């Protein structure tokens, strides 16, 4: 009996030892996941780094179109970059991202400051987007984007602290300067002329919306089909600008010298209006005229002189506009009526209305966007010859659905 008891006791110890060893070897590894803190972002496009501390695979979740993360996943400890696009609104915005590892998750609140209020006072020490509301514009400049066409400065980039000392900058009096040489890259292979010009982008920084089409990036005329009015961001429109043309080309073909487009409505493929300033080399004053181009298949282009003359050899236009002289224009569309007004201090307004009922823009599928800046209309002059205008006000509005 004593021998049996000792054997049972030794067996129990043996089983107890191996049972404990097995439990120790199968002990579950405790997950680790934590994130470093982050400061409030400025209103400009900006990137900050966050440290992920982990001991396993992790990935990120982000449902904010103004926040991007790189990289979006990893194993173990790693640094991720969190970037925000420019805040084009006058309100602080908040979002969050989440990092997930197994059953663990950590969220990080992202806060971005509101854009600075625009007082209307032009400050020569500020970039253009701090003096003007550029929340729904992008900008084309005539440098290579890497594909042989002009570079587009996005809405987000433009509304950061963007300037370009050659093409787009703030003047000594606070105005917004657009300067465009004859030589440079164009917006497409089918375009004949260079430009430093805004393109209206009603989508703002929401790049999930296409730039083209009857959609929430563009507008239509109020006489368009109801389905298009509903699908578009808005209908009808008005754009007002105050500017001075500082320089025009003086070299090249006489038919192209001295002319520049300073405002447009662009449609799918045509322009309901292109507004020109032109000063010939022998004159001290310039002219204002515009073109109305109907949609494809709806008739020939029409020209309207408002101040002075359109032709290539006209005399000094009576009551014309000199270089560096401030003037304002207003382009307004209500339904099929296009009204252009030229305003100068101390002088009567010059007004012209074009009825566009037969121009094809009230048909389905036609979409619109404003353009403003300088669109050089000389491709024959010296490479460094240029056009330049300084804008002192630029506003636009639409009827919202």
TrEMBL record:
Domain BACON: 57-113
UniProt-listed CDD domains: BACON (cd14948)
Leader peptide range in chain numbering: 1-22
Ranges for domain Alginate lyase: 132-398
UniProt KW keywords: Signal
Ribonucleoprotein in keyword set: no
Keyword Signal: yes
SUPFAM superfamilies given in the database record: Concanavalin A-like lectins/glucanases (SSF49899)
One matching Pfam family: Alginate_lyase2
Protein name as it appears in the record: Alginate lyase
